């Protein structure tokens, strides 16, 4: 089996019709979102969700984000406190996921929530929201890649990794944000950051006037996607905060800053020669994949500023560099 790829820009009606058919049959579809490409299936259908886990090779204790068409749909599945509602109104549609208590008998299958009494909800931009609106039910949609590997930011990335396991990939071009959504949970008036992503903590603080609480260290409890210590990993090892290049390495830079021995690198990439963190986030996963494809035994990555979107970039790189099981 080889996945059919439909270009949304060229055939939006055909893409929508084909996706609705596959989803209605209980199978996953790879869809573009503004963050990364997602592997979407009916969040209310146990068999469909099981196929997501099977296709990705994803542990079933790792919950899935459920994507909604709009806030009105989201209210049917998650219980919103005033602060969570304020965040939703400020950042949806967009790259923010809220962890909310499940509405009783919401219909979201426990497989999607990994049996938790909470659910991660996001309203995406563009075609994905249109698809959900026509489908009429939420779509569980983790990133469309083999579990633990680098997330896909193009249809080509999905096809290379999962093309033989899927029937349909929708091509919406390069994902403009390039890293997954930020995940937060509101508890007792506090905003806890579970995963940094496409909305910066500074942006959340500016909207709410409340300091975002970051974790003290790795958590043994999986409350949301993207919390596994080793994740987003290419085949080659990853070395962080590199100032020099060692034999056998590919090099990823930021801001045009040189690294000693760069001429020895298998290949050199710069996430953003101008030092733009949004550009760097959009290029991150693609450049990790390109560096991995050079045959380098290790990927050396220069230091990235930790503010704004840099927090999400550094989070992904730290997980990519973590010891693998």
UniProtKB/TrEMBL annotation:
Reactions it catalyzes: L-threonine + hydrogencarbonate + ATP = L-threonylcarbamoyladenylate + diphosphate + H2O
Answer yes or no on keyword Nucleotidyltransferase.
Answer: yes
Recorded hits in InterPro entries, A to Z, give: DHBP_synth_RibB-like_a/b_dom, Sua5-like_dom, Sua5/YwlC_C, Sua5_C, T(6)A37_SUA5, TC-AMP_synthase_SUA5
Q: Name one GO biological process term.
A: tRNA processing
Q: Which GO terms describe its cellular component?
A: cytoplasm
Q: What are the recorded GO MF terms, alphabetically?
A: ATP binding; double-stranded RNA binding; L-threonylcarbamoyladenylate synthase; tRNA binding
Purpose of the protein: Required for the formation of a threonylcarbamoyl group on adenosine at position 37 (t(6)A37) in tRNAs that read codons beginning with adenine.
Q: This protein is called what? A: Threonylcarbamoyl-AMP synthase
């Amino acid at each position: 089996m080889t996945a059919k790829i439909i270009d949304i820009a060229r055939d939006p009606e055909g893409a929508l019709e084909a996706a609705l058919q596959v989803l209605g049959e209980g199978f996953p579809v790879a869809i573009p979102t503004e963050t990364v490409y997602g592997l979407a299936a009916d969040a209310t259908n146990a068999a469909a969700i099981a196929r997501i886990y099977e296709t990705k090779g994803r542990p079933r204790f790792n919950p899935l984000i459920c994507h909604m068409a709009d806030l009105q749909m989201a209210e049917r599945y998650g219980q919103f406190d005033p602060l969570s509602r304020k965040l939703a109104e400020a950042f949806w549609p967009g790259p923010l996921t809220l962890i909310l208590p499940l509405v009783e008998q919401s219909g979201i299958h426990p497989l999607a929530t990994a049996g938790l009494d909470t659910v991660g909800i996001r309203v995406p931009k563009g075609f994905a929201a249109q698809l959900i609106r026509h489908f009429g039910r939420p779509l569980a949609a983790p990133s469309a890649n083999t579990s633990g590997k680098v997330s896909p930011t193009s249809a080509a990335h999905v096809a290379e990794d999962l093309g033989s396991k899927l029937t349909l990939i929708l091509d919406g071009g390069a994902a403009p944000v390039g890293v997954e959504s930020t995940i937060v949970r509101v508890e007792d008036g506090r905003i806890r950051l579970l995963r940094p992503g496409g909305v910066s903590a500074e942006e959340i603080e500016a909207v709410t006037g409340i300091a975002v609480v970051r974790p003290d260290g790795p958590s043994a409890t999986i409350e949301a996607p993207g919390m596994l210590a080793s994740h987003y990993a290419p085949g080659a090892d990853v070395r962080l905060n590199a100032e020099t290049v060692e034999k056998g390495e590919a090099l990823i830079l930021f801001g045009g800053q040189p690294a000693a021995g760069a001429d020895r690198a298998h290949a050199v990439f710069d996430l953003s020669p101008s030092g733009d963190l949004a550009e760097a986030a959009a290029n991150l996963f693609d450049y990790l994949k390109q560096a991995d494809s050079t045959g380098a035994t290790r990927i050396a990555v220069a230091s990235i500023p930790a503010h704004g979107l840099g927090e999400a970039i550094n989070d992904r790189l730290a997980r990519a560099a973590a010891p693998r099981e």
